[in-house]
Write a structure and sequence with these properties.
With about 260 residues, the chain is an alpha/beta fold. It contains nine helices and eight strands. The chain has an eight-stranded mixed sheet with strand order 1-2-8-7-3-6-4-5, with helices on both faces. Strand 4, helix 6 and strand 5 form a beta-alpha-beta unit. Helix 2 packs across helix 6, helix 3 crosses helix 5 and helix 7 runs parallel beside helix 8. The radius of gyration is 17 Å and the shape is globular.
Length: about 260
Amino acid sequence: MPANCLTTESHYLTPERTGSSMAAWFPGAVFYAKAFGVVYRAAMLAKKGLYDNQRWIESSLTTVRALESVGGRFDLKGLDIVRGLSSPCVFIGNHMSILETFVLPCLIVPHRDVTFVVKESLITYPLFGHVMRSRNPVVVGRENPREDLRWVMEEGQRRLEADISIVIFPQTTRSVEFDAKKFNSLGIKLAKRCNVPVVPFALKTDAWGLGRRLKDFGRICPEKTVHIHFDEPMTVQGSGKEEHSRVVEFIETNLAEWR
């Protein structure tokens, strides 16, 4: 297996292993200590202009291993779909926690260049902001939907024309509950405009919970399996309503199964 790849199979399931007693008793403290180390090292490299795709993959893999080290389990499917892509695409999925921002790079970047559509506040975070800015994201304000649409269309097209795929979370914010009414069709519109495929994905990442005061620092629940499932690419036809409905149905079906 390549050093920068989590698995060469289409399905990854965390192997059974025994962790330390410290991790068993204090999973949150152990995980956050390791995660902070990942972000700090990445930020220092990013500030020097040295945080490239290979470093990004390494950070992502280390985060996966950090959660596994405290008893967390991953169940990842459809990885062969990402490996088999022959062109840039728009990845569209639900957004549950900050964990997917850490994990998706090691699943996608070994095979295709990718970046994210992110809210403006994310690139101003201490430390993590340096990392996100180095990934050349498409940044939106989330205050003016019309302006965000125009910006994502323009900047997203530039990335896709440069052979860089885009990850879009069409929800207005991270949420454990999926509300199809708040799941916009921005990713579908971008894919149609640029004539690239859409790759739907569904995820359940509440093992890294949402904090009450600081959203990114919630409870770590290793007993909750992390699920990410990619679906087959599809080409947007006509208005895109059918494709949007298929993405929503894929997410809802998987979430119902995982619950």
